[in-house]
């Protein structure tokens, strides 16, 4: 027996087994943006440390 097309779900429709699962694309985007923010914070902190060391070395000499 062939299932009629009118009963078939449309593209992108959630079925009963995927309705409760998180969207992996959204999760990937959220985790990637957190990584960028963390990398930016580490970069700024490193630049501040280098600037402080250079300033301290210049004051002594």
Explain the overall architecture:
Keywords: Membrane, Transmembrane, Transmembrane helix. With 61 residues, the protein is mainly α. It has a domain of 34 residues. The protein is built from 1 helix and no strands. The chain is rod-shaped and about 85 Å long. It starts with 23 loop residues before the first helix and ends with a helix.
Rounded Rg: 26 Å
Mean pLDDT across all residues, rounded?
A: 75
Major beta sheet, specifics? none
Topology pattern, helix = H, strand = E: H
Cα separation of the termini: 90 Å
The counted number of beta strands is: 0
Summarize this structure briefly.
The protein contains one helix and no strands. With 61 residues, the chain is mostly helical.
Task: List the keywords.
1 helix; rod-shaped; 61 residues; mainly alpha
SSE blueprint and pairings:
Layout (H helix, E strand, L loop, with lengths): L23 H37 L1
Keywords: Membrane, Transmembrane, Transmembrane helix
């Amino acid at each position: 027996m062939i299932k009629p097309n009118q009963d078939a779900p449309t593209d992108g429709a959630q079925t009963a087994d995927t309705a409760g699962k998180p969207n992996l694309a959204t999760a990937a985007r959220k985790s990637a943006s957190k990584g960028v923010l963390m990398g930016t914070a580490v970069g700024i902190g490193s630049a501040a440390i280098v600037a402080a060391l250079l300033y301290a070395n210049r004051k002594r000499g």
